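U., I forgot to send this yesterday:
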Amino acid sequence: MHKMKKIAIMTWYKYRNFGTALQCAALSEKLRKMGFSPSVISYNTSVNKYIFPELESNWNTLISFLRQRLDRSYSSAEREEKFNDFLMKRISETELKKNYSELYELNKEFDTFICGSDQVWSPTRSFDDKYYLSFVNESNNKISYAPSFGTNTINNSEQKKIIKGLLSRFNHISVREKTGARIVEELVEDTPEVVVDPTLLLTADEWANYVDEQSVKKIEGEYILCYFLGNQKKYIKNVKKISKQFKIPYYIIPTNRINDSHFVPFEVGPAEFVSLIKNAKYVCTDSFHGMIFSINFGVQFSVYKRFKDSSKTAENSRIYDMLSTLNLNDRLEEDCFNRHISYEQVQNKIIEQRNKSSLFLQTAIDNPPKKKVNHVKAPMCAGCGSCAEICNRNAISIELNSDGFYQCIVEEENCVDCGMCMTVCPIINKPEKQMIDALELHSLVSKDSVVLKQSSSGGAGFELAKTLISKGYLVCGVSYDSEREQAKHIVIKDMEELQKIQGSKYLQSDISSALEEVLEMQEQKIAFFGTPCQIAGLHNVLVKLGKREQFILIDLICHGITSMNIWNKYISERKQEFNEKVLDCNFRNKKYSWEEKYLCLYNRHGKEVYKMSENNDEFYAFFNRPVAYSPTCYECQFRENSSADIRIGDFWGKKYEGNSDGVSLVVSLTPKGKLIFDDLNEVSIVQYPVDTYWDSQYLENPQKNIMYKRILTDVKDPTLSLHEIIERHMKYYFMRERTQKYKEFVYKLLRLK
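Result:
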């Protein structure tokens, strides 16, 4: 029996918007009618978005905040239920995916991916590169069907660069509007197909299977239907004219919580929405899909301009394009209700466009890329070294890239496409353990005052390492090499050397040589400290090699890492400032504070020449704000997951607020990890519920600044100082921090907190 081809759809559909739900259902239905098995990717759209600082201001941010708090958008439990029921009946969903790693797993299940329709390519604050199929590997078929930019142009130069790179990965591109085609042509010098919205892929007769006629029967006689997403008050005057002309009442599908006697007398879900338009005498709308369904059902309509054309976020172009294509431009005029639409020519045009669009879809699916790629081609790399260590062809090395991050480099001539590297990559393989399933959680404070003073928090890392060495383990951790001005993993064999890896190093470490050294050891027990992604990669390699039991793996609650180019520039500027050839550093000197970080620099004689709190230090300006993190930090899956035996970090929260000595958090994740923790001596420990972990973890991944690439480029510019770069790119973050104080005041004022 022929197996149906599985296709994954990446689109918006979770917003309680009629058009959004209906376009998703329509594309799914069309693919099923073509003989395929479609699944819509369930994706958490609230994360992983870019931010646009240039669109922000103190006042705009505060006003937006107030609008959210005072939002009167219509919602109800019954409408929510109707949406849920509709989608459950009309589409098939994947399991929920929250980040790049989880999305990448879909490459194992699907070989054809379609993004679109709706405004999934909109260059606004909702911009998310996953809707450009950034997670789909090179060997799989990437198709865009009718995505919309929702605008006439993209003005942001950095955004253009990002979108250009994303578009170049597609095998087949179509867009919904001519304006979108012009944008694509400008960026990739290719002419995409202009296709119809998915809702027009289905005929009016096919949509009849989606309607709910029983609800509509509650309205007696003919009616005018109003569906407005914008300010309906300015449209109602015109609606009343139409109502008077036709001598029939008008009904409004509610989109706000303001009571109106003209509201539709029943709750409206997607099926009711279709029915209401199908049975209407006349439709008044500012909605693209309100207009589309009117056209498909041959209903007379007026369409209103929801946005000012001059607005940066205007979405009028999609309506203009459709009206122009069908020679219906006059439906934007207030008195157009006096002119009857002759639908014969319109429907012929729709049939022509529908057939052309269906052909594009069929052709794109039938023509996948020819090349299969089994080695690492992921757009993100954690620089963990796991792929290099598992490769038996010496085809992969770990090097600093031009942006200042360690990443894998594949030598194509040595690669045989065995795919082993893909099996150990921590970015595309999700850890099995979740933090919520941890065995135990404790606070820890070393009883040794010297250890406590020299450690970044409570001394957990030092005490664990000391105990493990006493049990015959070698310890691998991060030291700072002041001569090379870099963090580097080293192997510690005795107690005297432990001080080298004590304390935090807020840099991406060079891990390669240490990995190679410990993996060559046959019987030796080893304790390895690292960031969660480094530990996850090592864990995957050890499992493949059958050496996992030889190791104790300890990962750290990770803030994220900045470009090494920033640190190199920072140190260079400080050396010039103090006329020193070499500077050693302490990233977090507890002599001055635990909760507030102090970065201290020392000359080769050990004299402190620089001390600065994180609030005023230029390196911390970048470290504390997500402007130049590794690409993997914006997609981190290790806040909730781990491959380690133990996780350690600072113990934040009200319990230790005001503590000046430092307190460590220790999470035992495996029985082996718990046994080691139980063997600790000379420490004070207190057990807490496991969910206390979330008080000390960064709960959400940072959002990437749309100027990300520009910032990394500026850092490489020798003519620009860090101070100048901060002045150029950090104002938004400083503003947002100030605005947070305004928000707290507003909360109190509105008694919302």
